[in-house]
Design brief:
heterodimer, A: Rossmann fold, six-stranded mixed beta sheet, 10 strands, B: mainly alpha, MetI-like fold
Chain lengths: 272, 255
């Protein structure tokens, strides 16, 4: 029996007040257990509430109903010692160098200077950015910026990493390389990772389990296991197993996306 | 790349200097060849002599001291009040929605029209110039502070919060560095409009100061000396602007 890192019980979320015509139900009655050390991908149509669920897990958003427990403790706000985030893009502070960005999270948590230097050096090395420590984010490519954001999250040495479409704004090739690197990185740690993505390929390549969401208001429609050890080889992408799982996800998603598009057309497209 | 930049900058400077020299050349031609009355446009050569005379004798010191003291006092008031008020407003979406358009509206009216009122309240001396200069420069500083603190990219705030930043750390490491360049620009604009309004109001009604001196010379029909003083004020303004701009750049880098 593996230990549960994150337990989500009956979580629903609604943006806006009850009765308000503009209120949007983003999530309905979602329950999910995420075990320690696994990488779970959340995938679903736009606006299905997968990012909302991620923010609720991280304590950045309080659910309308239901609760989330992290390592047995109820989540009531950010838990910087247990949970680190990697956001979609441009969450690095542009006025700080890469190194300063990485160190700042540790400054917030009162990590002593000597330890900060050691930990930031290690995490920058892990993402292959040690030669760019003194560059500013604007001097880096999009892929390198996301590596730096990942280094910042790794340096916090949390048990849980929540990643909200971290490679979403990158081109396909950069995405692939970053995915491979992430898989290698993961095989060396026992971090629990929740990874929100739009990309079926990315989900299949990275995840131990994929949680497929239904259209808004979303909930976990199906859980698909990807039984393949980390680090995953580039060859996995062309394997029969990969294709089968990817096609399975495509089938599941296809109906939901159609539903979600029909609804968007009806309501004139509310944002997520 | 760097070198090309520098060469480009040099070329820009050369064009600017040429333009100014051409303007002075036209002035000279107008005064000597085109028979423009010396009462309207005195010959630049004696103006230049007077300019040096003013610098050499140091007779400008008294007026310059008055103007600069007024400017410093006005700017100190508007910068501190503007930043504090702006920060307070920026902390609430409601206050931003109500007060930002109001401030922008007031900023767009010519406040100098209220100078008679200021003189009634504060007298003909420096106090009325300080009060007016402070009022006029308050608005760009407050507005830019609101913009700086009020529209910090949400992802920065969320990222810092997720990493456990305290309120103080949020201010020190996220809000302040994000807002600083915009606030500094507001201060530079505030400084410029304070200088303009102080010299302007000195010219309208005052007891001393550079603006006062220029109008006084005009009334005495001493056009050559008046032009020399105008050149002096232009030089002072240029020096102050260069100083403030370089301070802005330097302060923007330390964050």
């Amino acid at each position: 029996m593996t230990e549960v890192a994150i337990r989500i019980t009956g979580v629903s979320h609604q943006f806006g007040e009850q009765g308000d015509a503009r209120a949007v139900r983003a999530l309905r009655d979602t329950s999910l257990d995420i075990s320690r050390g696994e990488l779970i991908c959340l995938i679903g149509p736009s606006g299905c509430g997968k990012s909302t669920l991620l923010n609720i897990m991280g304590g950045l958003l309080a659910p309308t109903t239901g609760k989330v427990e992290v390592f047995g403790k109820g989540v009531a706000g950010p838990m910087p010692r247990d949970i680190a985030f990697v956001f979609q893009e441009n969450s690095l502070f542009p006025w700080n160098t890469v190194l300063e960005n990485v160190e700042l999270g540790m400054v917030f948590q009162g990590v002593p200077r000597a330890q900060r230097e050691e930990r930031s050096r290690r995490s920058l090395e892990a993402v292959g950015l040690k030669d760019f420590a003194h560059h500013y984010p604007a001097q880096l490519s999009g892929g390198m910026r996301q590596r730096a954001a990942l280094a910042r999250a790794l340096s916090l040495e949390t048990g849980i990493l929540l990643m909200d479409e971290p490679f979403g704004a990158l081109d396909e090739q950069t995405r692939m390389i970053l995915g491979e690197d992430l898989s290698v990185l993961l095989s060396r740690t026992d971090k629990t990772i929740v990874f929100v993505t739009h990309s079926l390929g990315e989900a299949t390549f990275l995840a131990d389990r994929v949680a497929v969401f239904s259209a808004r208001p979303g909930t976990v429609k199906e859980l698909i296991a990807v039984d393949e050890p980390h680090p995953r080889k580039p060859g996995f992408v062309t394997s029969e197993k990969f294709t089968t799982i990817r096609n399975r996800l495509y089938g599941l998603l296809h109906d939901e996306i159609k539903k979600s598009m029909a609804e968007t057309a009806l309501t004139g497209g509310a944002d997520k | 790349m760097r070198r090309a930049d520098k060469e480009g900058q040099l070329a820009t400077r050369a064009v600017q200097v040429t333009f100014l020299l051409a303007l002075i050349g036209l002035w000279y031609l107008a005064a000597t060849r085109w028979h423009v009355s010396p009462l309207l446009l005195p010959n630049p050569v004696p103006v230049w002599d007077d300019f040096w005379d003013i610098l050499r004798t140091g007779e400008f010191l008294g007026d310059l001291r008055v103007t600069l003291t007024e400017l410093a006092a006005a700017f100190a008031i508007s910068a501190s009040c503007g930043v504090i008020t702006g920060y307070f407003i920026s902390r609430s979406q409601y206050r931003i929605r109500v007060l930002e358009p109001l401030f922008a509206g007031i900023y767009s009216i010519p406040i100098i029209l209220f100078l008679p009122l200021y003189i009634l309240f504060f007298g003909l001396g420096p106090a009325s110039k300080i009060a007016l200069g402070a009022t006029i420069s308050f608005f760009p500083i407050a507005l830019n502070t609101i913009a700086g603190f009020g529209y910090v990219d949400r992802v920065f705030v969320v990222a810092a919060r997720s990493m456990g930043a305290s309120d103080y750390q949020m201010f020190r490491y996220v809000l302040l560095p994000a807002a600083l360049p915009i606030i500094l620009t507001g201060m530079r604009i505030g400084f410029t409009v304070a200088l303009l309004s102080i010299i302007g109001s000195e010219a309208i009604a005052s007891l001393a100061g550079l603006g006062h001196r220029i109008v006084h010379l005009a009334e005495a029909m001493e056009m050559t000396r008046m032009f020399a003083y105008i050149a002096f004020v232009v030089a002072i303004a240029a020096i102050l602007n260069t100083l403030v701009s370089s301070l802005e750049r330097r302060a923007g880098r330390v964050r």
